Amino acid sequence: MRGTRAQTNTGRKEGVNLNKQQKQKKETTIDSYYSPNGTEGERSTNDKPEIPANWIQAVEELKTQLREAEDNWEKNLKIKISHLETEALELKQENSVLKAKIIQLENEAKEMKDEAKEMKDEIKRMKDNLQRNSDQKEKDDQKAKDEIQSLRTRVKQLESSDLTRQQDTIRQNKKNEKIEENVKHLIHKTDNLENRSRRDNLRIIGLPEDHDKRKSLDIILEEIIQENCPEILEQEGKVEIERIHRSPPVFNPQLTTPRNVIAKFKNNQIKEQVLQAAKKKPFRYHGNMVRITQDLSASTLKDQKAWNMIFRKARELGLQPRIKYPSKLIIFLQGKVW
Q: Which of 159, 222, 245, 297 sits CB 3.0–4.6 Å from 194 for a disulfide?
């Protein structure tokens, strides 16, 4: 469409130039016929008739009108030419913009072509990678299948060996249970033997350490009996002690409580009388509270200690708890033993 407009404008310019040349030729002919003062000019022949004055005036007016028309025509022509030049400049600018856009589109097309080529290459690489991965996966799958088959075979072997091991374990567990029962029986028997070996012993708890520095422990024990249950000495006379010592034998200065005293009586009856008297009332020695109990093995004492909280709670409830040898808790309630 723009090409058509350009051709039309060019045709108009050529037509204007042709008309202008024709008018100049015509004016030259008329001017050459008359002189500037309105007289007849020279002609090729001298025998032509004289032209009237009114004709000359009319011709002058016509020339004036022609000049004015020509000036107006030239002005309009210049305006049109200016407009055409402006349009041509705009067309030139549009053409430049179009060329720039065309160049840009060509560059974009080139870039798209390059990108398409890169994408094509990338797709090809991806296909190659997929093919390699597929081949590798098939190899891995086959390897995994072989390993699974090997593991299944191994599992079957392990299951068969595990069954044998389970049977061996069951037999071993039975043996262990029997051994544990024997061990428990031996421990119980050992504790019983140890407690029997301690049946003539009494444990004195709470006796201060400084007393046995001034006196021997057997004299202190006799004084304790004399102070708390003198009737025993009156009946039996002197209390015979086979041996007496602190336990543990080595003094630990970090301990805040005094060590226990273990006394072995030669006469079991006197030991029982002292123990029964200690159960009826608390013993004192030079103003200090001392507690006398039966001497037992460490394991039996540990078992009895487990009942301490229940023992104290039963006393708070007004019950009469007792620890029966070796470590059994009994309670007296309403004349019955529970």
A: 297
- Residue 88: closest CA among 9, 1, 16: 9
Percent of the chain residues topping a pLDDT of 90: 10
pLDDT value at residue 332: 67
Q: Which of 145, 179, 253, 264 is nearest to 209 (CA)?
A: 253
Q: Is residue 189 domain-shared with residue 208, that is, in the same domain?
A: no
What is the distance between the alpha carbons of residues 271 and 293, in angstroms, rounded to a whole number?
A: 10
Locate 184 and state its tokens: 């428990």
* Residue 48, burial from CB neighbour count under 10 angstroms (0-12, 13-18, 19+): exposed
pLDDT, tens only, 54-83? 888 888 888 888 888 888 888 888 898 889
Do 217 and 192 share a structural domain? Answer: no
How far, rounded to the nearest angstrom, does the alpha carbon of residue 110 sit from its chain's CA centroid? 48
How many angstroms separate the first and last alpha carbons of the chain?
124
Compute the Cα dihedral for 217, 284, 200, 258 and give only its sign.
Answer: negative
Cα(263)–Cα(199) distance, rounded to whole angstroms? 11
Interval 118-177: pLDDT, tens: 888 888 888 888 888 888 888 888 888 888 988 888 888 888 888 888 888 899 999 999
Does the predicted TM-score (pTM) go above 0.85?
Answer: no
Neighbours of 223 (CB within 10 A): 14
What does the CA dihedral 219, 221, 223, 224 come to, rounded to 10 degrees? 170
Side-chain-side CA neighbours of 217 within 13 Å: the count stands at 20
**Shared domain check, 244 and 188:** no
Which residues form the domain of 168? 148-198
Q: How many folded domains does the chain comprise?
A: 3
